[in-house]
Specification:
Arc Repressor Mutant, subunit A, 9 helices, Jelly Rolls, 4-stranded antiparallel sheet, single chain, alpha+beta
């Protein structure tokens, strides 16, 4: 019953017919991951499609100098692996739990025997894939800029859009899902540079650095001005 409720509440799956939902609920796997656990590795065989049920997953690659580059952060309802199963390709990047997370795992067999023949599933996957192309354009914009202030400002604005919580006073609270090293990996900067830029933003009154890595955005307009 719990798995059926999960299917009904998951955008990619809720339009399946009752028979397919019943079959899927009997074969669905839900796995819990702790922060830092690998959900999949670069060049692993693609045996599952993953849909985020809760928490957050970072999609990253290892650069030639050994640094990690975070490309995307996936949260509830985001999926990864559908194209890999469709093309019988390996995973290109690493998928790592950024927080304690629950992930819906759909096997290659269920994907090929059931989901790939469902028009509603394919339509929703296509819509989300096009939205991801737009995110790719934002990724290029975020990583190609040279100015450090602009990189950090863009990164903070992205995090607000992804997971920021608007406070009663109009500020935005970013929960401490990423440490400074990971924020550097996300923005394409060294940890020391990120720390220095955040301190500068705090001195300017744009943000407030809170305990345990949380950040409060006090002046969103000023951050946006830095990205122009």
């Amino acid at each position: 019953m719990i798995k059926r409720e999960i299917i009904d509440s998951t955008i990619l799956l809720h339009d399946l017919n009752d028979r397919d939902k019943e079959f899927l609920s009997e074969n669905l796997e839900i796995q819990k991951f702790k922060r830092g656990d690998y959900i999949f590795h670069h060049m692993d065989e693609a045996n599952f499609m993953y849909i985020m049920k809760s928490g957050a997953m970072k999609i990253s690659m290892d650069l030639s100098d050994g640094r990690e580059q975070i490309l995307y952060i996936y949260r509830k309802e985001d999926f990864v692996g559908g194209l890999n199963l469709l093309t019988a390709d390996k995973y290109v990047y690493n998928g790592i739990a950024l927080t304690e997370s629950e992930v819906i795992k759909i096997s290659k067999q269920i994907y090929n025997d059931l989901l790939i023949h469902n028009e509603n599933f394919l339509r929703e996957m296509l819509i989300q894939s096009f939205l991801r192309i737009r995110k790719s354009e934002e990724l290029i914009d975020r990583l190609c800029v040279i100015n450090g202030d602009m990189k950090v400002a863009k990164g903070l604005i992205d995090l607000v859009h992804m997971s920021g919580k608007r406070e009663p006073d109009g500020s935005f609270l970013i929960s401490p899902h990423m440490n400074r090293t990971e924020l550097g990996s996300y923005t394409g900067l060294a940890r020391e540079t990120v720390t220095r830029k955040l301190s500068y933003f705090e001195d300017m009154g744009y943000i407030e650095l809170l305990p345990k890595g949380a950040i409060r955005i006090l002046d969103m307009d000023s951050l946006r001005d830095l990205t122009i």
